[in-house]
Design a protein that fits this description.
CATH superfamily of one domain: Calcium-transporting ATPase, transmembrane domain
Largest sheet: 10 strands, mixed
Radius of gyration: 35 Å
Distance between the termini: 39 Å
CATH class of one domain: Mainly Alpha
Structural class: alpha/beta
CATH topology of one domain: Calcium-transporting ATPase, transmembrane domain
């Protein structure tokens, strides 16, 4: 018989049996395990030990992987470069250009038998094809550049994804040691430790549990927490959250075989099938009303793929899950402030550009027809078709230049670049737009422990047997009986996942693992000279009778263990004022037992607990109680049978107090400075903590949150609630508005208080600019507040999976000063985009006006189609790269935040845009009408359409590019600074691109000939062009001298609340279903919007909206898929996933059409005949998809 690692190779239970086992719940599950022979028998069949875990040998691990699979769900492969090229080609404006260029090419080879064609024309005809080909090549360049940008973006996000996944670890027991392993390495047979706040990475059966409650809403849609235990409901499933308690489980299913994995696999197959079906439908239907999508069908990805980048063409706005907690349902992540403004701007520019482009074509064609057929009275010749196509090409090119495709690119580049750099500053950004929102933050609500403090806790004071020690006592100072009770009580009554490990190098501080407060207490035990581990080895977790785990309501933890000579002992520890109230006895002088009267309690609080708290210490009390079968002493209770452990009120009374300890958690050295920076930058920092009010006040003063002469409020949770609720107990916004502006510290607060405060500040309209709130959190219960905040920061080290999942940014070092860096980067993103806008709009205005007026006055655009495409490339792709990658400077923290209502284009920027445009237009029209006389060259006006390039028009083109290039340097400053050169050399990307563009321009002018319609210039003419270019820098100084304050406010663009912009075209989740039918876009608008496909899908279609970098904890938008899951949870055989089932296909089809309707602007279809929301039982995939292992190894 084959053996592996000294055991049989054949397991006692098969993969199929395990999958079937995991489908049972509740009592059924208990019975199924009993049929196998109990949980220990199951462990035997899997060759694992409940206490030792797996052996950890390589051969064993490999064999388990082969037999039961690994904990990874294979992702969908990324899009290939060619797919991205194909998607970039779908842009309507590019398609029109391609067609026009092809027609032009064809016509240039079309030689009608023309009787009186002059000989000279023959010469020109040779080159007729060059322009058509040049346009085609330009289009190809634009497409490849776009595709390459998308490709590198996709790669970047996948890299980020892998980095995040590597961070997600889980505790398992291997070879008798507790170790943290990556979620992807978990195997069937592993013994995993489950604790409060975990997101379970695999399915398993409980071996032992304490007060375990799990939130299974991600699988079932039921928001009630489910009680779990070996004898109630032993099955715990992947993708669910542990909301309370702890336990130990044996892993029975991983990866695609786990319950979440089965669903994902089914979804994946179902979604692929549904895509194929949609394609068929599209081919088969010619009826416009039933057309599903405009220019591109988005592929709805199955959530399992943990898709990193939704490519431009895909909508990723799906309906929010409705089954999550009430807090979530009330709040949809709105579009970020910047996006709302950019979206509106892009659409407005587009409208203007299209109008001018159409006018240009009409004017050119009318002029041509009147001149040729009316004035010259020539008959129609087929060669004239070529002239008409050329006019069309010029019009389309104007449109290409007018539509700022560079905008979404600049936003994406700037954000992607910042995200990459922020990783180095310990900010792991999970939602791209959070990065930019952070720049506008006006308030930060921070936790105390671990964020403002070091989270390295140590006991520095203790009160035992009426002796207050400010140094660590020795065991001999404490009466023996009390000493034993204290060491035993702390060692047993703390999570066995909390440990103190030796430092990596001798001389290093010991490493605290698990709950830091418990580690401080364990350190205290070690300091007394007792090994807590030997006590734990003696009393293992399976000997516990009952555990009352810590939660925010209890604020204490209790453990019941059997006494050696019959009966039980309860140990408890927790917040001192709470434990004190439950104590009836205390050990007094020399360890004598005394009654603990009310007056003694008050004295103890006044003389011991308050002074400790005022020193910034966290006070913890340890107490115990005995239940004995025989004669009971005065502090013991007589029992006959087993007490009713569920009656917590009666169990946790008449305790005997053992000691009170003061735990110090020092303020991080860099925090006071970081808080000063925030205050200087106009950001209010508030501290929200569960700690005692005195402790909170002390720490807040040390941090600098409370400044001596300020007018501020410090409240406890109870008082806060009293002030903000009316007589009926309802929260009133006007009452919150009286409290929050002055509130600086909220102590003894519950998670609900934190949520209420955050919501109150966000909804408040007291301050003129509306507050943008950032929140930090680490606990499971911080989820609602993190989700509600504009930016949620979770702690990377101390944070629970649930908190990380609700957050937007993860602080990998749990440090407050990293938040300041996030603010700096966020402001930098906003400024980078503003710089790009200032530059781009100047070019847009000039190019469009020149083409238009040129067409009217000279019957030909001074800037040719290919030239405009080159300018478009400079200003879009290259400039967005150059300006979006500026480094942030500390000066960014010296100004106030913009808030929600600040105009996107300030008056200073508008002054620069209009001023520079005026200068450029004067120069270009000067050159156009009198340049030939001044520079003594042949005029280019009034030439035949097929005539060769002239030096006159080449100079105009060259001057325009020179002015644009030098204006790019001007655009680096947007707040009216005079020194535009400052910091230029710190940005290599900027100067490299600038020099590259300059060299390319020289080559185009000197050697571009027919392809670029240029004629080589002499040195003299070059110097004139450069002179006009440098003029923009001088002119820029003049513009800066004009006082901005004197300008009318109307010049700023984008003022007001972003909601105003998003209302009409709510590009977020609810597309048109919430808008009355008369507000639905007209067909004309639809066509127009499709014309902007690429632009919209990038900026609007939410390229950044909830730009999901699905993380082990992603707020992933896969709800649509999940509704389906419930359909098959009920109707289909979930094990073998019969994909062909018609009802499933039907549901999926409706589902898709629905989600497409909600998808994005570029794909508006006539959604009149789509049925109301499908009534399919909800499953909240929000968590399911966030399930870490499903996303490993993208």
């Amino acid at each position: 018989m084959a053996t592996i690692d000294g055991r049989p190779a054949q397991y006692g239970i098969s993969l199929k049996q395990l999958r079937e086992l995991m489908e049972h719940r509740g009592r059924e599950g208990v019975m199924k395990i009993a049929e196998i022979g109990g949980i220990h028998e199951l462990c035997k069949k899997l060759y694992t030990s409940p206490n030792e875990g797996l052996s950890g040998s390589k051969a064993d691990e490999e064999h388990r992987r082969e037999t039961f699979g690994s904990n990874v769900i294979p992702p969908k492969p990324p899009k290939t470069f060619l797919t991205l090229v194909w998607e970039a080609l779908q842009d309507v404006t590019l398609i029109i250009l391609e067609v026009a260029a092809l027609v032009s090419l064809g016509l240039s080879f079309y030689k009608p038998a023309d009787e009186d064609a002059p000989v000279l024309q023959e010469e020109e005809e040779h080159h007729g094809w060059i322009e058509g080909l040049a346009i085609l090549i330009s289009v190809i360049v634009v497409v490849i550049v776009t595709a390459f940008n998308d490709y590198s973006k996709e790669r970047q996000f996948r890299g980020l994804q892998n980095r995040i996944e590597g961070e997600h670890k889980f505790s398992v027991i291997r070879g008798g040691e507790v170790c943290q392993i990556s979620v992807g390495d978990i195997l069937v047979g592993d013994i995993a430790q489950v604790k409060y706040g975990d997101l379970l990475p695999a399915d398993g059966c409980l071996i032992q549990s304490n007060d375990l409650k799990v939130d299974e809403s991600s699988l079932t849609g039921e928001s009630d927490h489910v009680k779990k235990g070996p004898d109630v409901d032993p099955m715990v499933l992947s993708g669910t959250h542990v909301m309370e308690g702890s336990g130990k489980m044996v892993v029975t299913a991983v990866g695609v075989n786990s319950q979440a994995g089965i669903i994902f696999t089914l979804l994946g197959a179902a979604v692929d099938e549904q895509e194929a079906e949609i394609k068929k439908m599209k081919k088969g239907e010619s009826d416009g009303r039933s057309q599903i999508k405009g220019s591109q069908a988005p592929s709805q990805r199955p959530p399992a793929t943990s898709e990193v980048t939704k490519s431009e063409s895909e909508g990723n706005h799906l309906p929010q899950s409705s089954s999550s907690t009430a807090a979530e349902t009330g709040h949809k992540k709105e579009k970020s402030v910047l996006q709302a403004k950019l979206t509106k701007l892009a659409i407005q520019i587009g409208y203007a550009g299209s109008t001018i482009a159409v006018l240009t074509v009409i004017i050119l064609i009318i002029q041509f027809c009147i001149k040729t057929f009316v004035i010259d009275e020539k008959p129609w010749k087929n060669t004239y078709a070529n002239n008409l196509v050329k006019h069309l090409i010029i019009g389309v090119t104007v449109l290409v230049v007018a539509v700022p495709e560079g905008l979404p690119l600049a936003v994406t580049l700037s954000l992607a670049y910042s995200v990459k750099k922020m990783m180095k500053d310990n900010n792991l950004v999970r939602h791209l737009d959070a990065c930019e929102t952070m720049g506008n933050a006006t308030a930060i609500c921070s936790d105390k422990t671990g964020t403002l403090t070091t989270n390295r806790m140590t006991v520095v004071q203790s009160y035992i047997c009426e002796k207050l020690c400010k140094v660590l006592p020795t065991l001999s100072d404490i009466p023996q009986q009390v000493g034993n009770l204290i060491t035993m009580g702390i060692s047993v009554n703390s999570a066995y996942t909390s440990n103190i490990m030796a430092g990596h190098n001798p001389g290093d501080l010991p490493i605290q693992v698990g709950n830091k407060t418990e580690c401080a207490l364990l350190g205290f035990v070690q300091g007394l000279g007792v090994k807590y581990q030997s006590i734990r080895d003696e009393i293992t977790e399976d000997k516990f009778t009952r555990v009352y785990t810590f939660n925010s309501v209890r604020k204490s933890m209790g453990t019941v263990i059997p006494r050696p000579n019959g009966g039980y002992r309860l140990y408890t520890k927790g917040a001192s004022e709470i434990i004190m109230k439950k104590c009836a006895f205390i050990y007094g002088h020399e360890g004598t037992l005394e009654k603990f009267t009310r007056e003694m309690q008050e004295r103890l609080i006044r003389e011991v607990i308050e002074p400790m708290a005022c020193d910034g210490l966290r006070t913890i009390s340890v107490a115990y109680r005995d239940f004995v079968p025989g004669k009971a002493a005065i502090n013991e209770v007589h029992i006959d049978g087993e007490p009713n452990w569920d009656d917590e009120e009666n169990i946790m009374t008449n305790l005997t107090c053992l000691c009170v300890v003061g735990i110090e958690d020092p303020v991080r050295p860099e925090v006071p400075d970081a808080i000063r920076k925030c205050q200087r930058a106009g950001i209010t920092v508030r501290m929200v903590t569960g700690d005692n009010i005195n402790t909170a006040r002390s720490i807040a003063s040390k941090c600098g949150i409370l400044r001596p002469n300020d007018d501020f409020l410090i409240l406890e949770g109870k008082e806060f609630n009293r002030r903000i609720r009316d007589s009926n107990g309802d929260i009133q916004q006007h009452l919150i508005d009286k409290v929050w502006p002055k509130l600086r510290v909220l102590a003894r607060s519950s998670p609900t208080d934190k949520y209420t405060l955050v919501k109150g500040i966000i909804d408040s309209t007291v301050s003129e600019n509306r507050e943008v709130v950032a929140v930090t959190g680490d606990g499971t219960n911080d989820g609602p507040a993190l989700k509600k905040a504009d930016v949620g920061f979770a702690m990377g080290i101390a944070g629970t999976d649930v908190a990380k999942e609700a957050s937007d940014i993860i602080l990998t070092d749990d440090n407050f000063s990293s938040i300041v860096k996030a603010v700096m980067w966020g402001r930098n993103v906003y400024d980078s985009i503003a710089k790009f806008l200032q530059f781009q709009l100047t070019v847009n205005v000039v190019a469009v006006i020149v083409a238009f007026i040129g067409a009217c006055a000279v019957q030909d655009s001074p800037l040719k189609a290919v030239q405009m495409l080159w300018v478009n490339l400079i200003m879009d792709t290259l400039a967005s790269l150059a300006l979006a990658t500026e480094f942030p400077t500390p000066d960014l923290l010296l100004r106030k935040p913009y808030g929600r209502t600040k105009p996107l284009i300030s008056r200073t920027m508008m002054k620069n845009i209009l001023g520079q445009a005026l200068y450029q237009l004067i120069i270009i029209f000067g050159l156009l009408f009198v340049g030939d006389i001044i520079l003594d060259i042949e005029s280019g006006r009034g030439q035949e359409l097929n005539a060769g390039p002239t030096q006159h028009f080449t100079i105009i083109f060259n001057t325009f590019v020179m002015m644009t290039l030098f204006n790019e340097i001007n655009a680096r400053k947007i707040h009216g600074q005079r020194n535009v050169i400052e910091g230029l050399l710190t940005n290599p990307i900027f100067y490299t691109i600038w020099i590259f563009t300059m060299i390319s321009q020289v080559l185009i002018i000197q050697y571009g000939k027919m392809a670029f319609s240029t004629k080589a210039l002499s040195l003299d003419q070059w110097l004139w062009c450069i002179f006009f270019g440098i003029g923009t820098l001088v002119w820029g100084q003049l513009i800066t001298s004009v006082p901005t304050r004197k300008l009318p406010k109307i010049l700023s663009w984008g003022r007001g609340h972003p909601e105003e912009y998003t209302d009409g075209m709510n590009l977020g989740e609810e597309r048109f279903d919430s808008i009355d039918s008369d507000k639905k876009p007209r067909a004309g608008q639809i066509l127009w919007i499709r014309g902007l496909t690429r632009l919209q899908t990038q900026v609007i279609g939410g390229e950044l909206q909830e730009r999901l970098i699905p993380v082990p904890y992603s707020k992933s938008n896969t709800d649509q898929a999940i509704r389906v899951v419930n359909a098959f949870r009920q109707g289909l055989d979930a094990r073998y996933g019969d994909h062909t089932n018609t009802s499933l296909a039907e549901v999926l089809r409706k589902q898709t059409s629905l989600s497409k309707r909600l998808s994005e602007t570029s794909s508006i279809e006539y959604a009149d005949n789509i049925p109301d929301e499908l009534t399919i039982p909800e499953i909240d995939v929000e968590r399911l998809s966030s399930h870490s292992h499903t996303e490993t190894a993208v």
